[in-house]
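Q: Got a minute? One more chain.
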Amino acid sequence: MLYLVQRVCSIKSLYIGTVTIYCDSKSALQNVFENHKLGITPFLQPDADIVHTAKQMIKELPIQVKNIWVKGHSTAQKKVFTGRTQRNPR
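A: Always. Here it is, folded:
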């Protein structure tokens, strides 16, 4: 998504404005948009290379980037346990 925003800004010569990124992963938003302490810790998080690249792209964009968390959906059906499976759901 950030790459597309970067390309649109470049092709259309956009230097001011705001884009909002909607994502259903709170941890991804926190990792990309929140400042973390310096040191090795940020590089030990899952997908550290992707998070680092996203942060760099946001810094280089000429427009402001906002983020909003949206609730994801689940297609899983609720399991109903009865009898023995209610006591021991394996």
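A: Helices lie at 2-11, 26-33, 41-44, 48-60, 84-87.
Q: Perfect, thanks.
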